[in-house]
């Protein structure tokens, strides 16, 4: 093999040892794949195919309002990403995975992708500004996180739909991971649409639950709990955990809540939970927890950067961080267990 000179003047005799940049290039351009999927969600590609059947690039593009110039490349990119199939006649259809998770109206639909398209994706373009200033890059700065989201009907429904997606799978695992036969009542703080409580109530008919959240989500909470058949055992208590005490219960749950807030607020909420629980009561905190060494769980660290972009003081944290805050609040024992996907829970006893 012919040797070559490096920029520093040294000879490199093994070209095979020279690193290649493909992984870095892919990381740099990965936003393109994400944007194709999110545009397909916004256009309703998967729902249209499920509802009205396969179609060629021209026919499907006409049904969706996609200009002919980009239609074929767009749909073929979805094929290459294994999100659509294409038959010998050029007709596109959903894959099994897309039919299951990307069709609006199905119980397995990933509504969080709509929030990703509408709110999350645009703000990530401003990450450099957020890193330089420490300030959120969305409408929170003017209105505050939840007034900004809950003040508009469409934003509110999209947001609580995303929270339902985040909560449902972990709720099913949580329903099996605690000795629920020991408890009678559970309170979900920041309950959104009530998906977690619905999962617990369906699995454990002896349980009664209360969802605690701001008043604008009460109607959506009632809607979901009626659909799940648990409205007789799961109720909504409107309130603001900055000014109100938490509802008493045998188990208090914070699911994807603490990461929205700064350290003082995290500690305040755990102290309120300690006051609201009876002796031997239990608190559950679940999030996409950062690994204690802060080296491997890139998903959770990206979530923390998302909090930088979208909140005034929020950040994600490790299980060790959380256990320390729980001890400060007066909890005597704590332990950690995995839930669904990237979620883990920290459980502590009063």
Automatic annotation (TrEMBL):
Matches recorded under CDD domains: AdoMet_MTases (cd02440)
Domain called O-methyltransferase C-terminal: residue spans: 124-332
Residues of the O-methyltransferase dimerisation domain: 26-103
Alphabetic keyword roster: Methyltransferase, S-adenosyl-L-methionine, Transferase
PROSITE patterns from the UniProt entry: SAM_OMT_II
GO terms for MF: O-methyltransferase activity; protein dimerization activity
Residues at the catalytic site: 259
Top-rank lineage group of the source organism: Bacteria
One biological process term in Gene Ontology: methylation
PANTHER family registered for this protein in UniProt: O-METHYLTRANSFERASE CICE, PUTATIVE (AFU_ORTHOLOGUE AFUA_4G14580)-RELATED
Protein name, UniProt field: Methyltransferase
Protein's organism: Wenjunlia vitaminophila
